[in-house]
Amino acid sequence: MTTVDKASRINAFVQTAFRNGMDTVENVHQKMFEIPVDVARELGLPKDKAELVKTKHRRILDNVYGAVLSAHKDIGTLAVGQIGEFVTLANDLGSGGRRKPVPAGNTVAKKPSRSKKTAPERSSGATG
Questions:
Q1: Which pTM value belongs to this model?
Q2: Separation of alpha carbons 23 and 102, rounded Å
Q3: How far is CA 35 from the centre of its chain?
Q4: First vs last Cα of the chain: how many Å apart?
């Protein structure tokens, strides 16, 4: 199993766990909102108005939590892609500079050249 495959599996696990957690939070949020609406209903708010308010709030929550889940999914996809690019770059750099051709429009950092400079002499620190 490649590094990217492992990252993809971890991403899938994290996405599922996050989605399950967000579903729970969204459900709790909706139930908490419905309590005062139900109290208002008992105090005289017409049933159709109470249901309209609940429905509108549910739609708002669907949009908000849906956007958060979508952003989280996109971030996970980007992270796995970045890992793939990093692995490719590391493999290319580890091949002794024999890189595969890079498609037009892409750039890859050049491998730094190593010069054979000697370290400067250190003084003993003694003064004379």
A1: 0.63
A2: 43
A3: 34
A4: 64
pLDDT higher at 79 or 104: 79
| Closest alpha carbon to 106 in 92, 127, 116 | 92
Work out the number of other CB atoms within 10 angstroms of the CB of residue 77. 13
CA distance 128 to 121: 18
User: Which is higher by pLDDT, 3 or 111?
Assistant: 3
Q: What is the mean pLDDT of residues 90-99?
A: 73
Residues 6 or more apart in contact with residue 26 via CB below 8 angstroms: 61, 65
Burial of 80 (0-12, 13-18, 19+ CB in 10 A): buried
